[in-house]
Amino acid sequence: MMLPVTRVLAFGAWLVAQSEATLSAPTISIFLKPPGVIPPGGSTTICCICERGYGSFVLYKGSHRLRALEQSGSMAEFSISNATYEDRGIYHCHYLEGGTVLARSDELEVSVEEPRLPRPHLSVLPGYEVSVGDDVMFHCTTTQPNTSCYLYLEGQIRAQLFSREQGDYNLFHVQKGDSGRYSCQCYTMSASREWSAVSNTLDLVVRDYTLCNAVRLALAAGLLLLLGLITAEAARSRGCGSQAGTAAGPLR
C-alpha cells in the first residue's frame, strides 16, 4: 500500500526541520575583556556570546544565580568595576529561550590579585601584519627572573603558556582566526604565586592575500572584457557608418 504523496512530503519536511534544529543547537562562549588576573580596584567585563541573538543570558557565580545580562545582539556583558577579592570565583553563563535553558558555557575563573612583579612587554615577529600560512613568534619580556608567562587572546577563555626557557610562543601556519588583540602576563613559580600586571596589547592582523589576488584578477578580467566589448561596439559602429555613407553617395 502506497502512502499519499502529501504525507510523504510532510514527513520529509519534518525530517528536514528536525535535522536543521539538531545542527543549529546553540553553543555559548564566555571570556574576560580584557583578559588576565585583575588587580584590586581594577575593572574587567565578563562577555557571553551565542550565535543566536533573540534569547537571553543569565550569569552564575558557582551555583548562585547573579542576574540576567544586558544583551546587545548575540553578546551579553557583565561589568566588574573597582574589583575586590569578593569578585574572585568561577563564573558561567546560561542561554535561554522562552525560559528554557538551551546552552551552558564553560567555566571561567576570575582572579583578583595585587600585582607585585614588573609589567612585561609583548612583541611579535615578523610584525603586526602577516599573511595566511606565515609563522609568528610572540615574545614576552620581563626583568623578573624565574617566572612563567601566559599569552592571552581577547575573546578566548584559555591562555597559552610561553616556553619557560626562551619566553617565546610560536604560532605556525597562521589563519584568519588567529587575528586579534594579544597580551601577556607573568607569575613566579614559587609556592606563593605572585603576578605581574598585564602587558601592553598588540593587534595581530592576518591577511589572506590569495583571496585578495583572486579578487583583483577577477576585476582585471572583467575590466578587460568590458574594454573588449566597447572596442568591438566602436568598430561595429564605424563599419555601419561607412556602409551608410557608401549607400548614400551622389547619383550620376
Structure description:
There is one protein chain. This protein has 252 residues and is of the alpha+beta class. The chain contains two helices and 19 strands. Strands 3, 4, 7, 8 and 9 form a five-stranded antiparallel beta sheet that branches. Strands 12-19-17-14-15 form a five-stranded mixed beta sheet, with no helix packed on it. A four-stranded antiparallel beta sheet has the order 1-2-6-5, with no helix packed on it. It is flat and about 90 Å long.
The amount of helix comes to 10-25%
Largest sheet composition: 5 strands, antiparallel
Give the topology string: H per helix, E per strand.
Answer: HEEEEEEEEEEEEEEEEEEEH
Beta content comes to: 35-45%
Mean pLDDT, all residues: 82
Shape: flat
Q: C-alpha Rg, in Å?
A: 30 Å
Task: Note the topology.
Blueprint: H1 5-23, E1 28-33, E2 44-50, E3 56-61, E4 64-68, E5 70-72, E6 75-80, E7 89-97, E8 100-104, E9 108-110, E10 115-117, E11 121-125, E12 129-131, E13 136-141, E14 147-153, E15 160-161, E16 168-171, E17 180-188, E18 195-196, E19 202-207, H2 209-247
